[in-house]
Design goal:
The chain has a three-stranded mixed β-sheet with strand order 2-1-3. The chain is an all-alpha fold.
């Protein structure tokens, strides 16, 4: 079994303990935030609506990503070893790619849900039925696992002739750089996935928000416009933050002029920032979730 070496984290020995504690606290906080969000959605029947069920699945994607990243990172900091086995590296890359693709797919479905809710409110319950929602969720997960699974099958069928991972974690581009064989098929398929998922997400979200904007301008009712803005602002902030991170990461991988340190920073940011922001943004900006969480903790404090 091949043992790989990842890029050094550059942490001085004197700061190892502080970095380890910081990593553990960050991971635990992310798990706590998402757990509160997931449990709240599961237990409160008034949150069993399409928007919150889709948010539940988005949170699962975030947990998949941070679980693929943080345990290996904090273990590496504590042991001061950047070695990782090839199967563990493949598993980490698989989880991170499932997280990225799945998040984009669910953010796209959430945009469609907001479009139906605002532009066709009278038909919302007939269009977004439980059956339709289940089909959309199953389709998103199926596309995610099928696309990413095929990508990694194509990647691992090549033998490796190097053992140095050029990034701070394992992903498909870094795994491809381990082989000396022709990887054009994997490259083309990877670009196809990026084009399809990114293109579909951007077009769908742009279309839905354009239709929502037209609907708000046509309505000319301050209350309706305010509700639409409140409903969409949260989703749009999450989507744009995710897209900006992905764009910077993709550009940094394609341009040789980009500093390796900057590329690694972009790579880490896409795993750290969205999973932290998503539960906080949705928890603080979504009235139903915020009220439910605050009421729960108030009852616990009163009981004490």
């Amino acid at each position: 079994m091949a043992i790989l070496t990842m890029e050094s984290l550059g942490i001085p020995p004197s700061n190892v303990l502080s970095a380890f504690i910081f990593g553990i606290i960050t991971y635990c906080l992310i798990l706590c935030f998402h757990s509160v969000l997931l449990v709240t959605i599961v237990l409160k029947r008034n949150l069993h609506e399409p928007m919150y069920i889709l948010l539940f699945n988005l949170s699962l994607c975030d947990l998949m990503g941070v679980t693929g990243f943080y345990p290996q990172l904090v273990g590496s900091i504590l042991s001061q070893s950047r070695e990782i086995s090839y199967p563990a590296c493949v598993l980490q890359g698989l989880l991170l790619h499932l997280y990225g693709t799945g998040s984009l797919l669910f953010l796209t479905v959430m945009a469609y849900d907001r479009y139906i809710a605002i532009c066709k409110p009278l038909r919302y319950h007939s269009l977004m039925t439980q059956g339709t929602l289940v089909k959309m969720i199953c389709m998103a997960w199926s596309i995610d696992f099928a696309m990413i699974g095929a990508l990694f099958v194509l990647t691992i069928r090549h033998g490796i002739c190097r053992t140095h991972i050029v990034d701070t974690y394992c992903d498909n581009p870094s795994l491809m750089k381990l082989t000396c064989e022709d990887t054009r098929v994997v490259n083309y398929y990877g670009l196809l996935i990026i084009t399809l998922v990114q293109g579909f997400s951007i077009l769908m979200v742009s279309f839905t928000y354009f239709k929502i904007l037209i609907s708000c301008l046509t309505t000319k009712q301050a209350k309706s416009i305010s509700k639409a803005i409140q409903t969409c602002a949260t989703h749009l902030v999450v989507f744009l933050s995710f897209e900006v991170n992905i764009f910077l990461l993709l550009v940094s991988h394609r341009l040789e002029e980009v500093s390796p340190h900057l590329r690694r920073a972009f790579g880490v940011a896409i795993i750290i920032i969205p999973p932290i922001l998503n539960p906080l943004i949705y928890g603080l900006k979504t009235k139903e979730i915020r009220q439910t969480v605050f009421t729960f903790f108030q009852k616990k404090v009163s009981a004490i």
